[in-house]
Amino acid sequence: MAVRRSVAIIGTRGYPSYYGGFETAVRKLAPYLAEQGWDVTVYGRKGSTVDAEADARVTTRVTWGVESKSVSTLTYGLSSTLDAARRRPDAALVMNVANGFWLPVLKARGIPSLVNVDGIEWDRDKWGGLAKRIFVAGASATARFGDQLVYDAEEIGRRWRADFKVDRGVFIPYGGDVPGELPVEDGLEHRKYVLVVARFVPENTINEFLAAAERLAEDTKVVMVGSAGYGGEIDQAVAALANRMPNLQWLGHVRDDRRLNALWQHAGAYFHGHSVGGTNPALVQAMACGAPIVARDTVYNREVLADNGEFVAATPGAIEAGIRAVLASPQRQEELSVGAFERGRERYSWAGVNAGYEKALIDLIDGHRQ
User: Is CATH 3.40.50.2000 what the domain over 6-175+349-369 is classified as, yes or no?
Assistant: First the structure.
């Protein structure tokens, strides 16, 4: 008789949600685990999910919290942890080191934790000094109290071993879905436009890209997808440029996966400027769509792409030059498209990601019971 196990997933906006990378992972993982016979509970926030798209086998629980940029993760994490501690699943999958403060609650109840540490949050420019200190403290608590850690990039694992002296952790990245052939968006031409998909925060090189986009849009279509999430100066600057330059389109947040995949699939150059995280979900999905990728030159982007990207410095001039070089060469576009697609299929598939999480959870539970 098959063993039925239970897991609580803590630290995302819920299931199914389209907010960010953690939510994308949970959208894939929760139904997969349910299909394998797990009892899966995903904690979330009111109004953050698309309930009509939920798998009925996945239990969702909404807890209380304060909706603000600075304390939402901490407050929702605490309320979810307290509820899970009362229900006592076999294991907890915890997303985000900010929830490391609450891991002793799980440990006191005999619930082993698998913690996805995400990127190096305290390196992000969007956080002030206090927030950065909170993330470092949360990471220290995670290193001390997390039973097992998940690194979504090998480089993230290296940083944790160096900075927090941990000797445990498993590599589980994000995956991409191969979408099949999709139509070109109205008003665009295959391989003739530039695309960026990102949250509008400084560490995603949005300011530098926007300066490059002003010059690119003089003769090339530029499509921008994303926003800051809380409004702000970058959103205002993008809106102003889109109003002034007909060739620049700002689509805001695009929840429709089919539309987003089509934009990636037919782009002439997709600029990926993320600099702080590990394996970025948008990057691996762009690879699955066969987008020719121009990426900011970072250890993380080189780890994911290997030699299947055009790498540029984080300056407007370098970004513009790299994009124009790719747009000008159909041969280079095809080379980048095929190379990124093949690497994504070999290393960054959701089948492999889901299986990796299940194995890590089983190992955690079995080790805890010994």
Answer: yes
